[in-house]
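Q: What would this chain look like folded?
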Amino acid sequence: MKENKLNGESLDISVENLKKLREILPEELKNIFPEIDTEGKIDFEKLKLILGDEIEESNERYNFTWNGKLKALHESQKPSTGTLRPCKEESKNWDNTENLYIEGDNLEVLKLLQKTYHNKIKMIYIDPPYNTGNEFVYRDNYKDNLKNYLELTNQIDEEGNRISTNPESNGRYHTDWLNMIYPRLRLARNLLRDDGVIFISIDDHEVHNLRKICDEIFGESNLLGQFVVNSTPNARDYGHIGKMHDYVLFYAKNFTLAQTNLLPEVGKKFKYSDSRGDFNIHPLYNSNESFTNLNRPNLFYPFYIYLDHKIDEDFYKIGLEKRSNSLEIFPPKSVKNRVQFVWRWGKEKAKKNLNSEIIGYMTSSGEYRIVQKMRHSKKLIRSILSNSSYANRRGTAEVEELFNKKIFNFPKPISLLKDFLKIATNRNDIILDFFSGSGTTAHATMQLNAEDGGNRKYIMVQLPEPTKENSEAFKFGYKNLCEIGKERIRRAGEKIKEENENTENLDIGFKVFKLDSSNIKPWNPDFKDIEKQLKAFEDNIVEGRNELDIVYEIMIKYGINLTYKVEEHEVLGKKIYSIGMGMLLICLEKNITKEIADEIIKLKNKLNPETMKVVFRDNGFKSDSDKINIKETLKNDNIDEFVSI
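A: My prediction, written as structure tokens:
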């Protein structure tokens, strides 16, 4: 059994990156260049020297940089010492929901989510500040970002300057925005599944810079597309052009693994039918000139149309073997460049679908083709999203309908987010929005779940940006954006249940957590006073924090899902918290004696988890001998880990 001292930091990204590099670094390379493997570390400077001219040293090479980029990168890799404190009173259906609403600076929150949600998120959508000059653009303090956030409520920086806007007159107008978005996107990528995708709304002010950042972080080849959204059908008539659109960038973590769904095509009509139903036809060849018989030889082979076996008026039976009176058909060449096309299907798939889903066809001009029967009434999402349901005014009306007043300007419409969810997620996926604003992503997730019976889960993250005192939201009692977002989700969930049948199992709840400094004094970076340090040995819990605060902080540090149920057991008059059906037991009581170990073993046998960790307060044992006896007893019963905080 291991004995560990749990530390208060989130996942160290730089350490994890080095581990990954060492895992993929071939042994052959280390054998060829043994000098690069130095005491378990990779000496990159030596590797550069060995490779000599192969290393690009020129300052003129293609790259995208700005003042502060290196600091922003370092910030994304620096562990957080903060925690997320549970807030049951502001939550809904706390005991049963699998949704999260997290209030705090998303940079710190993304760090805290690294262990729990690494490679777990299927879809991310964000609508960050567009940097129009009047929006809130939070400036990170790379010396102590958590402390910076906790001082945010005053909205004044150390020099007494307002920090809520980023005017164009500021000499670091683009730089501040880039330093804000860059580390957040780097952290977000870690959370995406290998088949995950991200959508980012933006407008003309920063779309050019955002595209370059995303090309660097996600890889240029992983750009799936760029949507143009008809966000303002009536146009904003100022300047030299009436602006009607915004953009959404669409990236995959790995385009070779990403899969998207088709959207329903309302009112679609079919020209043909057979025993299986209606269909239209589409040529089987791939009309992309990038795929040819030279680089896709497995997709270049002949079909044979059997001219003696006509089916209906326009179709013929086909096969892969030549017969008498058969016509050999290869994919055509492109008209413009005479590039040889290939089929979209390989031979094995074609063989299974001969004359059921692929068939011979004669065009009106007498040409013969191999075509696929297209039975679905769905289509790929279009790059231009022009429907009026995508307009920002629709989003404004949707929020106004819930609150009976206009309290939020230009939220994204539900239709836009719902269509993104349809193409990018399946029924049990997790969705993250770390600029969640009024909560449209949560609203759209619940709405889609109600429509298709799904169980998608969402994680909303929002900075508690104060509402302006002259705003309608402030007048009606909503002091910050988080209060608006939480209330919208509450109201939207109830409305969805009222308007839809069979929603008994629909999850319309959410657990609220709030970013704060650590609950454990030695983990708190502000804990510097010598006198306080001495007192920490008497009681190492920050004053005003409760046991659930500590339980959830331990869960975060271990990377345990925050939606897991926390059950309480009373043993010998002491409270023990059980998470994940016993995978983690936490006892925060004082004066713990060796008898508690026998009771923990009974609890282990009752819950029967595959593995078990047990956490105690370091100063919770009645004596040192009790601590030793408890440790030995648990070790003898194969408890996996003994941890003290």
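The chain has 19 helices and 31 strands.
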